[in-house]
Amino acid sequence: MKKLTLCVIGVFFGILTGCDTQGPGPVADVGDHIDEVVENGVHSETTPELPAEAKPEPEVIEQQKKHHQQVVEQASKEAEDKLNAILNATAEPE
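^ thats the sequence. predicted structure below, dont judge the formating
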């Protein structure tokens, strides 16, 4: 039994050491390219110039803002009404 266990452990360690013959792999050179990645990241953050037809008119933007504000106010009113209904339903009778 001891010989079998020693053989199994020996084979296991032999396989384990044979798996890593080329080093840790492509992750090892990540530190070598950090400056390059940072430089490319900074350049990629600039916004591209949009064509004229892609830029909305100021009137359209104002109209969208007003519509958005109306939707937010309506949703807030509905949420407040639902909250009041829940509070009234769960309020303790006096």
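Residues 23 and 44 are 33 Å apart (CA to CA).
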